[in-house]
Each structure stands twice: as structure tokens, then as C-alpha cells.
Amino acid sequence: MSSALLSGVTGGTSVGCHRRAPRPFAPHAPRAARAAAAAPLPATRAAPRRARAPPPAAAAEAGAAGEAAAAAPAPAAGGRMTYRPNSYSELVADAAAAVLAALEAGLTRMEVEFPPIPTNIDAYKGSSDLWIDSNVQLALAGAKLIAASGRRVHVVLPDLGEYARSYKIFKSSLEALGGAVTLGHLKEASAKSGGFDPLNSFQSLFAGGAPDPAPAGAAADVFLVTNVSCVEVPNLEAYCQTVAKGKAFATWNLELDSLRGDLGLLGLPPKDVHYRFLSSIRPVFFLRPRDYSKSVSVAPFIVNYSGALFREFPGPWQVMLKQDSGVYACIAEDVVRYNLGEVKEELMAAMGLNTEEVGSMAAFLRRGYKTSTWFEDDAALEQSKEWRM
């Protein structure tokens, strides 16, 4: 696979850096308060890496969050200054190393997220088979690295149909790993609980000789879950309760933010799934590239810029600006996750594009009324803050 993760045009930027002590979690301040506190950096684009000012929080929420932060493993002094994986092998190795570090720290619910194919295609566009097969291939590569630590790893797919197909494609690779890495599917949970699943029974007729994955799932130490859609998230929760049973699992390129955004829509699981379950999954390796553009009154009139939200456990959350060379350079960091609106503001400030007067109509029209999602705003309803840490 190509090593390019994202194509974009940015101005050449030289970014210095400084780090600060981490702060305990507090819910994000309202958009107006954040905008009032924001100040554009000089247009030289040579601003040092900076950290957000701590947003205000209610005393009760801050107290509870402080206890949660005290119990959580402390992040490293700082994250990467720059990041540019030269290949997908390096990217998977970094993700596996972050998972191993999280396992050593005692985490049991983890998220790994990075672009699995070297284009702007996502799970909702292009060839679904390309997306599915790339995720399985990368998950098996990551599982192999995790298994090198002596742990047995079970790569879990949504249903028996995908399991049978992937087993047929990757059978030789699985046999070469000698049982240290195995394949399975979420329907193992219904079989274990004694329930009857008509679809699973029908798909079993076309399993093509794929072995029963239940024994391998019962013997596994770590689970990597991939290719799960929004409608299958409750099955993932049931799997964690009946098969994993407190063992460590990591979601692998599930695009959890996209799945969260679909919750509550007609025919899909309710938002409570996030409050109850998805909020408990901590991102341990997260690379989410984004492309933006802004119109200006002088040539070239349209400025394109790219960046990414990045996190590598145990380091902090980082906003990375993409350079002309393709290197991502850190411009801001925090122990608390940035929402997408904040990521864009940090990138604009570093590029010298945050030129509208704070509180002006032009600033309002550019930012819009809403700069965050419902799951970023509903901190009070979450049973866990892990997904923000």
C-alpha cells in the first residue's frame, strides 16, 4: 500500500514547540466562550506549539472528572513533534505499540483509528470490499505484533458471512501464525448465550469449511474488532459482556465518531449506546486527517490546508498541521480530546487565517452556529469519560 495518508496543499510552515503540564478533564466550554478566548497568531506561521486554555466547568463535574483523571495512567511529558509514517507497516507497528503500552497500563477498552487505505475513500464511498479487506489485513498485521508479546489475539468480524470470506482469503496467513492469531465474529456471543440467530444459522450453510471460532475466542487474551457498522454496535457490546468478559479489546478502524453520529437515527441504535458503552473506549492510537479551505480577498483567493487530530498512548491529544513535505507537525496539544471545531480553529490560527474579529458577524458566518456534535456536548450524560481522555 502507498504510504500517503492524505493529499492536501499547505503553506510551508516551520513550527516550534513547547509543552505544559497536563490538566484534569473538564467538559468543553461553550462555543462563544472558546471563541472569546481565541486569539489569532501572527501571519508568519512560525508560532510555537501551544495548548488550549482550560475551559470552565461546574464544580461537581470537575470534582468527578478529577477523580477519574487521577485514576487514569498519566500521559507522557509530550507527544511527537512531527509524524510521518513511511509505510503502512510502520503505521501498524506504531498502533500495535500503543495498544501494548495501554495493556501494560491496565486498559481493557481501546480504540485504534487511522486511514486504512491510501486515498480519501471512506467506509461510505468507493469499494466496500477494498475497505473491508484492507482493515482485516491491517488488523492481522497488528495482531501479529501484539501476539509477539505472548498474548493470544482474536480478530473479530461482524458476522459469519464476513468471517467465512476473510478466513478463505487469509487462511494461509492464519496458519503461518500457528494459532497465536485467530479469526472470529460477533455472533459467537449469541451462540454462547444459547440464543437462536436465524441469519447466523443460514450463513453457516455457506461457511465453506471455516472452523468454529468459539474455542479460539474463549482462549484469547486480546480482541481486535473491525468492520463493525452502526447497527452492529449493540452486538459488539454483547460480545464484550459474554465472550470477552473483562478481557482487553480494541476497536480497529471502526470510525467510532461516524458510528456515534448515526446513533439515534431511524432504524439505528439509540444514543444511549454511546453514553453507556462507546464512551468507555479510550483512543490509544488515533490519526484522523482533515482537509480544509478558506477564501481570502487576495491571490490565490482560496487557501487549502490540511491537518490531523493525533493521539498515541500514553501521549496527549495533538493537533497536527500538514507541511508541504507531507510531514505532520504538532501545533497544539492537550490531555483532553479536541472536538473537530477546535481542531479547525487551531489549524487556522497556525496558518494565520484566523483573521475575523472575535464576535463579529463575519466570524459567526464562518464558524456557523454549531461547531460540535451532540456526543461532544453531552458530557453530563456519559457514564464514562474515557473516550475523551
UniProtKB/TrEMBL annotation:
Pfam families: DUF1995 (PF09353). Residues 26-46 have a biased composition (Low complexity). Residues 85-345 form the DUF1995 domain. Residues 1-60 are annotated as: Disordered. InterPro entries: DUF1995, LPA3. This is Low PSII accumulation chloroplastic. It comes from Raphidocelis subcapitata.
